[in-house]
Amino acid sequence: MTHGDSGHHDEHDDEHDEHDDERDDEGTTVRRGVDEDGTTGTRAGTTRAGTTRAGTIRAGTIRARATGAGTTGRTGAVARAVRLLTVAAVVLGLVAVDAARGPVAPAHAEDGSLRLTVTGHGWGHGRGMGQWGALGYAQQGAPYQTILGHYYGGTRLAADAGNPWVFVELTRFTGAATDVLVQGYGLHAGSTSVPGYGYLRLRWNGSATEVQTGPSCGGPWTTASTVGATTVEVGAGGAGGLDGLIRTCEPTGSTGYRGALQLRVVGGTRYVVNAVQIDDYVRGVAAAEMPPSWGSTPNGMAALRAQTVAARSYALASSPRASGATLCDTTACQVYRGAFSTGAQGPGAARTLREDARSDQATAETSGQVMRTSAGRIARTEFSASTGGWTAGGTFPAVVDDGDAVAGNPHHTWTLATTVGEAGARLGVGVLRSFTVTGRNGLGAEGGRVTSARVVGTTATRTMTGNEVRQALGLKSDWFTVSLSPADAAALVRALYQDLLGRDAEPSGVASWSGLLIGGASSADLVGVLTSTQEYRERRVRQAYAEVLGRPADDGGLRGWVDAVAAGRLTIDDVQRLLYESPEFYLASGSDDAAYVGRVYTVMLGRAPSPEESAYWVARVRSTGRGSVGFGVWMSLEAAQGRAAGYYRTFLGREPEWSGRVHWGQVLLERGEGVVRVGIAGSDEYWARARVRFPA
Predict the structure, then answer these.
(1) Which of 643, 555, 627 is nearest to 585 (CA)?
(2) Cα separation, 506 vs 459, whole angstroms
(3) Is the pTM of this model over 0.90?
(4) Do 471 and 486 form a contact (C-beta atoms < 8 A)?
(5) For residue range 199-234, what is the model confidence (pLDDT) as tens digits?
(6) Is the CB of residue 605 less than 8 Å from the CB of residue 633?
């Protein structure tokens, strides 16, 4: 059975069976956003890998009043500010905000290097019996009958199936060249028999099958007979034991099979089918599907017996394929490798056994036994390598699988490291920006197996099932969670502490915030918490004093501003603007209106005003007061772009490109500086820089 479709697991193969955010009761991810003042507020959204979506600034009036430096706050409505800026734009050419326009796409690096960790449980689809769980229960002393009853609820063990013939499609030959080449002792097909050790080639000529003989797998071939039927069987005999089995001729050697081989032509397609009795088939399946060595562990034979019954029941309950066979030899049905293989041709080639005495013993001890439904039908008993601790339900009731935690099970809990670039490419969305689990089956840790997820990338947005994600990413199962890697999480914490607080993070802060980020918290959460601390507010006030007034903050002014922000009377970003309106700033300008306007432009915009700008704002000072200048110039797009550029320097260590300057300037005016901090600090570029600055 397939790990992803039908249910088996092959412990011997390089198997390829078929991740999660914290979610609320409705399956949505809960994240904390950041308002314009840097405070946090809970809302439903997605936790993005490498970018963060911020909230919308609340409309209304901004009222600010604080003591210190002789500053008096002003009251003004947002609508009044927009009208003022529109007038200024018309008169002076300043760029005003058009609130009806949506923001352009932000410019930031999409290098895809942000690392993710996918943590999951189990290997395979999880329906029916878990093989590792069967071993766990066996080692606890459970007999195979109890193990089967646990996993296949609603069925009963019956010993009435006998030993019928089954037909197994050997899929590596399906649709290939029209020849079937076999070797062995006493070969016979149709009316043709080959004494001793010989070689036969069955060639479909479009209307009949030519039976040809030759001296070796390479020919030359001579037609001995022609059979008109579309199904021709070739058998072997004349020798005992493994010597008497029919063998294929293949480029890398041969495979020996019990029973006979058939060439079937159905709808123009050629198939090779092994006709074999069920117990001989189960001998091959049991050895391929469950390590025979488990039979040598304490009570491990109980697990092997359970496997043989499950394999027999699954086989006898299967439906015909296009070839007419009811089974195949791959994980699409059950893995079946025949009795032995060789690396060369001829009777003397060394054999590698594909059966095992312990699996053979379990098969013999359960001969004829199957699981039957309440209606008396043989149950199609799917199984997989490891359930992770809960079966997935389906045909059989979902049950806790405590046996899956058996020592040595590498699939009970597993991890996979990837990047947002690699994961996004595999998921078909470009660079992965967010992964939100929207549904789980409710069985087991983290809510169980993923049933649906929303995947957002730089080129596409997709809604996928958990199994689709599993197959795309090459995961072991659809029971998984997705989180940041510990190293990347720690680097982000240390970078944000340094950029927002100006110091290294204490070890406890790194540990706690790294754990939260790995668990699904966003960079917005951390930015919001840090920017709402007393430490951050004091640092910002001191920076504002140094930049605007050119001096350190006095204790009274520092305390007054910080208290006003803490009380919610203004935002931390208002402090710097209000200092431009202070009597101290006006006095430092010589108490001259024109000099005051010039100093506002020089300090805030880094340039002198034009004569027209100076005349306009001097008139505004004299008609409405200094606040109109400080507020008006501060709220211009030019000033907003300058502040956005400052965040580029703080977080990214560089100047912005023009598109980034324009975009974030608009965002700053429309939605607040907190949104800009979150957006730039949540970019892929910031994460990549954090890893370079703070390597693991």
Answers:
(1) 627
(2) 39
(3) no
(4) no
(5) 999 999 889 999 999 999 999 999 999 999 999 999
(6) yes
